[in-house]
Design brief:
Elements lengths: L23 H13 L6 H12 L6 H7 L6 H14 L2 E5 L5 E5 L7 E5 L5 E4 L5 H9 L10 E4 L32
């Protein structure tokens, strides 16, 4: 031996499973926002971000726990979701039963959800008609106004196909669903 000190053991980081290519920019953007917020990028946070990036629907903490095969305890998941929320990369919504649902919102877009009472399918609605209510709150002396609004109903897949559709008199502009409304709140 040449007098070099050899480590007693070598720790090799586990390679991360590859991300689907279409989700890579979202993941990188989310990681950058976490760094900007001063949060460390840990393996549990990477796993949660990957799950949220790949999700097609909002997920509960319990859904994330199951999807991760139980590799993280629920307390860790909740703590990390709170950190993500403070960093501004999550959209949090609630079911009628009060369960929190989380969706990655790394571009900080303002939207609402309509959630099926039967199958829990959620769709984004980007139109927001609450600006006048927020203005009233400001007139009453409030600042830093925010709001949460979810709509609930039965989706076409779960409903009676013979039942008449509620066409309503929506004042939302055409194409409001998934349009990316930005109100600055």
């Amino acid at each position: 031996m040449s007098g070099a000190i050899l480590p007693l053991f070598h720790v090799r980081a586990k390679p991360e499973p590859p991300l689907p290519q279409r989700n890579l920019p979202r993941m990188q953007l989310a990681l950058g926002l976490l760094r900007t917020a001063g949060l460390r990028i840990t393996q549990p946070r990477r796993l949660l971000l990957r799950q949220l990036t790949e999700a097609r629907q909002p997920l509960s903490a319990e859904d994330l726990h199951r999807a991760g095969g139980g590799s993280q305890d629920l307390v860790t998941i909740y703590r990390n979701l709170e950190a993500f929320d403070r960093a501004g990369i999550l959209h949090r919504s609630h079911t009628e039963q009060g369960k929190s649902l989380f969706q990655l919102n790394e571009q900080n877009q303002h939207y609402h959800l309509v959630i099926c009472r039967s199958c829990q399918r959620a769709e984004r609605i980007s139109a927001c008609g609450l600006g006048p209510l927020e203005a009233m709150a400001v007139d009453l002396g409030f600042r830093e106004i925010t709001h949460h609004l979810e709509l609930f109903g039965i989706c076409a897949d779960c409903g009676d196909p013979a039942a008449p559709r509620n066409q309503g008199s929506s004042s939302a502009p055409a194409g409001a669903v998934e349009s990316g409304c930005r109100h600055g709140h």
